[in-house]
Amino acid sequence: MEKTLIIQRYNPEQDQAPSAKRYQVPFDHSTSVLDALLYIQQQLDPTLAFRWSCRMAICGSCGVMVNKIPKLGCKTFLRDYPAELTISALDHFPIEKDLISDMAVFLDHLQAVKPYLINDSNSAEPHRQTPAQLKKYQKFSSCINCGLCYAACPQFGLNPEFLGPAAIVTAQRYNLDSRDQGKAQRMPQLNGKNGVWACTFVGFCADVCPKQLDPAAAVNQGKVASATDMLISIFKP
Amino acid sequence: MPDSAGARRPYLQPLSRSWWLKHSFFLRYMLREATVLPLLFFCGCLLAGLYSLAQGESQYQSWLAFMAQPWVIALNTLLLLASLYHAKTFFELFPRVMPLLPAPLMIAGQWLGTLVVALLLLWLFGAIG
């Protein structure tokens, strides 16, 4: 059994714009899109460039558009598609080569929200946390930084300065952590015009998230946090 | 040593004006946002009604006649459907923004609230009871 993969190719040394190339790939019940790309690279065309690492939906490297929907290559199976499927680099990011995107904008946004525990106490004691405190942020802690939500977000496509779903989810994840004291440092980013308020709740990010962590909910809960923060800052001397 | 940065020539993907036609998810989103358009017409109608009421009885009667025209009724029916669709999407998004209770309970509660307010208004204006 074979399926046709129509792959967007772009060679920065030769091409002005990406163009499509067709490949016939054998498949069975367990063939993922990543397996198919590896087959093409190893058997048909060694020049095909794409990122991958873990093959098990935890490294977040193999994000591509499959039939115009952002997907992880390793978690998407040829069996679920008709005889032809189109694969291209993630939307809204510059294409470095073939299926490889330049994720620098996303990484800058992620860095801007200080995605780590900020705690000034110098105590050598461990920071204890109750199960109830863990539950507050746990649902937002499984982001693998694959960038699929950015490829799904038209607001990020229109305005690349928008912090975007994953960065805001991660900011929320640390703001809601009882061990963290960095909320005051993160709120200016979230409150700004490229923060939570740039989101119009399209909600597609939640559909494409391979970890089902509902970035759209996190962003819009961030609006509640942002509004509360503003009210408090008005009344605080 | 070759200049590796100089060899880079990333292709910037253009975002076309028709991005929202790309698949059904974006179409449904744009439909949700477009429900404001018939609402504008309704607000215009209401304002015109208030204005004509202040102008006197004959003005008000002609406004009533305008509102009874088939195309106005058709537009307002469209508006009602659009508002109900917007309410549906809003009620489904609300529990995700403020997860106070299990989502199905919050959605049912909001529809119940809508029904109660609608019945109250119908009773107030003498359409029922």
From TrEMBL, chain A:
Cofactor note (record): Binds 1 [2Fe-2S] cluster. Binds 1 [4Fe-4S] cluster.
The EC number(s) this enzyme carries: 1.3.5.1
Domain of life (superkingdom): Bacteria
Presence of keyword Lipid biosynthesis: no
Pathway linked to the protein: Carbohydrate metabolism; tricarboxylic acid cycle; fumarate from succinate (bacterial route): step 1/1
SUPFAM superfamilies: 2Fe-2S ferredoxin-like, alpha-helical ferredoxin
Occurrences of domain 2Fe-2S ferredoxin-type (ranges): 3-93
Listed cofactors: [2Fe-2S] cluster; [4Fe-4S] cluster; [3Fe-4S] cluster
Alphabetical list of InterPro entries matching this protein: 2Fe-2S_ferredoxin-like_sf, 2Fe-2S_ferredoxin-type, 2Fe2S_fd_BS, 4Fe4S_Fe-S-bd, 4Fe4S_Fe_S_CS, Beta-grasp_dom_sf, Helical_ferredxn, SDH/FRD_Iron-Sulfur
EC class (word): oxidoreductase
Gene Ontology MF terms in the entry: 2 iron, 2 sulfur cluster binding; 3 iron, 4 sulfur cluster binding; 4 iron, 4 sulfur cluster binding; electron transfer activity; metal ion binding; succinate dehydrogenase (quinone) activity
Family membership: Belongs to the succinate dehydrogenase/fumarate reductase iron-sulfur protein family.
NCBIfam families, per database record: dhsB, PRK05950.1, PRK12385.1
Designated name of the protein: Succinate dehydrogenase iron-sulfur subunit
Record organism: Alishewanella agri BL06
From TrEMBL, chain B:
Keywords (A to Z) from UniProt: Cell membrane, Membrane, Transmembrane, Transmembrane helix
SUPFAM superfamilies: Fumarate reductase respiratory complex transmembrane subunits
Any one GO CC term of the record: membrane
Transmembrane portions of the chain: 29-51, 63-85, 105-125
Signal peptide segment: none
The keyword Cell membrane is annotated on this UniProt entry: yes
InterPro entries: Fumarate_red_C (IPR003510), SQR/QFR_C/D (IPR034804)
Keyword Manganese included in the entry's annotation: no
Pfam families: Fumarate_red_C
Superkingdom of the source species: Bacteria
Full protein name: Fumarate reductase subunit C
Lineage, broadest ranks: Bacteria, Pseudomonadati, Pseudomonadota, Gammaproteobacteria, Alteromonadales
